[in-house]
Amino acid sequence: MIMPFQQSKYLDLISPVSFLVDFVIINYIAKLLPINLEVDLLFHGYISLGWLIIAFKTEFYVIRRHAKVVHILRLLVQQFFIYFLIVYAFIGFFKQPNMSRFALAQYVGIVFVSVSSMKLLSYYLLMKYREKVKGDLRDVVVIGKNKKTDQLVQVFNDRTEFGYRFRKQFCPRSENFDLKACFEFIVSNKIDEVYCSVSELKNSEIIDFINFADNNLITLKFLPDNKNLYSKKLKFEYYDYLPILSLRDIPLHNPINAFVKRSFDIAFSLVVIFGVLIWLGPLLAILIWLESPGPLFFVQKRTGLDNREFYCYKFRSMAMNKDADKLQAGKNDMRVTRIGRFIRKTSIDELPQFYNVLFGNMSVVGPRPHMLKHTDEYASKVDKYMVRHFIKPGITGLAQVRGYRGEVERDSDIHGRIKFDIFYIENWSFLLDVKIIVQTVLNMFRGEEKAY
């Protein structure tokens, strides 16, 4: 049972916009005050980089919907204590004896008040937006009927500023409890998050819930009252005073990480489009048409983020045929043209997907998008296959540089691909993306066995 597209309800732009506003504040105030800088550009670059590094380390822009004001204040104190030390270290690092210490203290104080005011105001407005306007809501279901689950339901109902919309509570100990009916309710009502009291579930039912959530793009969380659950890598959060465990932490669900990745995607795709495709496209159009009349691009529907369909672009490498949307290219495939064989071998046929990256359908690095037919096929027979749709698909990916590219000939091919896709999703970092891109370029020159 596969859930169709779930519409994202996160306000993804809040953290990136907050960062840009803070970035303007710390630089604008430095410009206004008489700090007596010898090299303005050096100081502005120094404080900007310092602010960014500290923010990443303290997770300054990661604000959970259930966060309290005290958590915001703790983040502000952490951020500015370290920032204060870094700003004053500038004097010693760059030997600036003429800098005004008093003006520097004024600067840090004014920035602290300004940034704190903006952060608390945005936090308050977001809470009110969820409470009054009923925007940015997450539909939730609770599995279990006991003191802790009742407290959690009360939190969802009373703390409306958290943005959770409680839909239903299931009691596994009830004689009428039906796991299949529970799953059907979750799917038909497009539930975003499921909260389980694991003390009321059998081990087999816990596994069923984990597999169901993974295969249907649902966030699964637990009330920690079962010791067996602690054998997994879990993440603690607090809703009011209730501890909640998250089964899977996805780095790209962090708005700052998503912003960094998206910024890189846009910059990289623009370089490729204006540096390569602008002249290579017309040349290939002539060569492709001379051998096989038809369009330059092969356009195919594929599944991406949240199982949404999108049109994926490639340079056409085959003669026009009716099986293009059903049958993957195989070894010595008669449909592949001579120029098509070359561009497939060198992966040049994938270059138009940088338009997909620019449009926001894809990323430079991520799980490769599959045809709709294959998504339906693999989702029904490969466990946790749908986890790969928690993030945008990529032009290249970890599975591809580890040898799992091209045609799926055996079951082990798709299982290996999913294993590396899930590892990438759970362990994303910017450096990992860079490593995969470098490896992909090297493989293009070396040639790959399954590039046909």
From TrEMBL:
For this protein, the record's InterPro entries field holds: Bact_transf, EPS_sugar_tfrase
State a single Gene Ontology molecular function: phosphotransferase activity, for other substituted phosphate groups
**Record carries keyword Transmembrane helix:** yes
Stated membrane topology is: Multi-pass membrane protein
Keyword list (alphabetical) reads: Membrane, Transferase, Transmembrane, Transmembrane helix
One Pfam match, given by its short name, reads: Bac_transf
Q: Does Aminoacyl-tRNA synthetase count among this protein's keywords?
A: no
Q: What is its main location?
A: membrane
Top-level taxon of origin: Bacteria
Could you tell me which NCBIfam families the record lists for this protein?
EPS_sugtrans
Record protein name field: Glycosyltransferase
